[in-house]
């Protein structure tokens, strides 16, 4: 029963999504990381709409440094955008990734900028 890393992450992701849903009062902060960048979205699952998004590959993003430093900066950007949209509380969806490294640093950056989860 050997599976790939991707299939393992998909299985974990399904388990997480069974328990987490984002509402209009408390939307879901979803994280995706690739080898080159990190992406975050605040999603209202009731309407199926993305309310706010930020990524390390967007044109208005200018932070350089290590991937962990970039992740923290993306966390701060997503928190500032969410606060501007009137969102103070979110549910954190790690999307099957371990809560470690870049995912943890994004969460820490969002918390520092005032997002509650």
Automatic annotation (TrEMBL):
CDD domains the record matches: Ribosomal_L18_L5e
Residue numbers spanned by region Disordered: 1-24
One example GO MF annotation: structural constituent of ribosome
InterPro entries assigned: Ribosomal_L18, Ribosomal_uL18_bac-type, Ribosomal_uL18_bac/plant/anim
Superkingdom of source: Bacteria
Extent of Basic residues compositional bias: 1-20
GO cellular component, one term: cytosolic large ribosomal subunit
SUPFAM superfamilies: Translational machinery components
Keywords: Ribonucleoprotein, Ribosomal protein, RNA-binding, rRNA-binding
UniProt entry tagged with the keyword Ribonucleoprotein: yes
GO terms of biological process kind: translation
A Pfam family hit: Ribosomal_L18p
Matching PANTHER family: 39S RIBOSOMAL PROTEIN L18, MITOCHONDRIAL (PTHR12899), LARGE RIBOSOMAL SUBUNIT PROTEIN UL18M (PTHR12899:SF3)
Cited function: This is one of the proteins that bind and probably mediate the attachment of the 5S RNA into the large ribosomal subunit, where it forms part of the central protuberance.
Assembly, per entry: Part of the 50S ribosomal subunit; part of the 5S rRNA/L5/L18/L25 subcomplex. Contacts the 5S and 23S rRNAs.
HAMAP family: Ribosomal_uL18_B (MF_01337_B)
UniProt family annotation: Belongs to the universal ribosomal protein uL18 family.
Name by which UniProt lists this protein: Large ribosomal subunit protein uL18
Species the sequence originates in: Olivibacter domesticus (Pseudosphingobacterium domesticum)
Organism ancestry: Bacteria, Pseudomonadati, Bacteroidota, Sphingobacteriia, Sphingobacteriales
């Amino acid at each position: 029963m050997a599976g790939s890393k991707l299939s393992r992450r998909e299985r974990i992701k399904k388990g997480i999504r069974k328990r987490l849903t984002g509402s209009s009062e408390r939307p879901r902060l979803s994280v995706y990381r690739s080898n080159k960048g990190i992406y975050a979205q605040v999603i209202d699952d009731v309407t199926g709409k993305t309310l706010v998004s930020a990524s390390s590959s967007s044109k208005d993003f200018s932070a350089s440094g290590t991937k962990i430093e970039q992740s923290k900066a993306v966390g701060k950007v997503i928190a500032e955008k969410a606060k501007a949209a009137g969102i103070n509380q979110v549910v954190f969806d790690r999307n099957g990734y371990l809560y470690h490294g870049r995912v943890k640093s994004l969460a820490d950056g969002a918390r520092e900028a005032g997002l509650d989860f």
